[in-house]
Amino acid sequence: xxxxxxxIIALAAxxxxxxxxxxxxxxxxxxxxxxxxxxxxxxxxxxxxxxRRKTAVNNWLAIPTSALQPITIKAFATAEQRAGTxxxxxxxxxxxxxxxxxxxxxxxxxxxxxxxxxAIAGDIIDSYATQAAIKGIAIDSLAVNVKQTGRSIGDWGxxxxxxxxxxxxxxxxxxxxxxxxxxxxxYQFSLQANKVETTIEYTRTPEQLEIPPTYQPGLRxxxxxxxxxxxGNKKLRESGQxxxxxKFGGYAxxxxxxxxxxxxxxxxxxxxSPDGPSAFINPAAGVTVVQVRHxxxxxxxxxxxxxxxxxxxxxxxxxxLLGSCFTHVAEGTAARNKIPLDTLKVSLTAExxxxxxxxxxxxxxxxxxxxxxxxxxxxxxxxxTIRQLVxxxxxxxxxxxxxxxxQTLTGRxxxxxxxxK
Length: 421
Description:
The protein is α+β, with helices and mostly antiparallel strands. The chain is 39% helix and 21% strand. The protein has helices at residues 2-31, 33-42, 46-61, 112-135, 170-183, 185-190, 219-238, 314-336, 383-396, 398-404; strands spanning 71-80, 85-90, 93-97, 141-148, 158-165, 196-204, 278-282, 287-292, 295-299, 343-352, 369-379, 409-415. The chain has a six-stranded mixed sheet with strand order 3-2-1-10-11-6, with helices on one face. A hairpin with a 2-residue loop joins strand 8 and strand 9.
């Protein structure tokens, strides 16, 4: 017994010493710029990452085609009750989408339009890394900014700029750009007019809800709040005044969209837009980091594709964002038409064939196909009203139109020098 107590004390002392040492290292990193710079330089380089990616590609190609089969992607998006935020779940991964303060949200996550083009950019930059690894092109830093240049809901006009630090020639980098775009699933997906098959699961709820005493405001209250906000703003506009959003939800009309991003990646930083959608690859973990202002979301590959499965893939995220955007637009459409909702969920499936490009599957699309979307709605309104709501939402949903209409994408490569060199 005495020996056990001494062992416990000794382990506690070791744990405390390790914790103190970690605190000292953290304090050193925060206060000592030279120490931090040295630590950054000792981290795995982008060239180390490309070696690991080349090994992953070779291991993937070594898997017999006969052992592969189409994958069903599944994603779920829910309008979260009184907050109205969109909660997206993909396998064990999840993220929130939300609007900024001046659009009636709480800025708890990236807005869906920015998130989806950042996801596309993340897929493109990942394709650059893969093709560079295959071609043996050395890269020391890689990042991408992306923007939307289109002027309508159906014409996004996605334009990206790749920032690359590489000793490769201009001709090699141009070849890399063409290969990356050709082999990026989301780049090719965006060029197509894709079909989405929509079904509706409808449940009619009572006009007057009876909820137990533990009641919390739900989606119906959020829709009512949106209705009141719209009516109040309409009256102000009709009287020639600016809408005062502080009256509905506690946020001011002139409140900035959100704080700017003040954090930048160590190996691909100064040229990234602090506000607009961007993405970079963390060479140590090998993940793609999607960034919009101060929000960041990780995209990764499953282990079979050479990743660590630390986040949803870019393709999975895109499918999930379709559902997220759909629920958001449905909320606004319901509010404008004074349709109370008690439940609003979207489940999506799509097929992705990993055999695409292999012998015998040269014409198989490398992007998702057979997209199916089930909209689950409960409301006191009749089924015909809800079906019209879904139809109107399809017309007004930006990402639904992004998916179902062929888009124009443009891109270029810009040389930079990594700041940690």
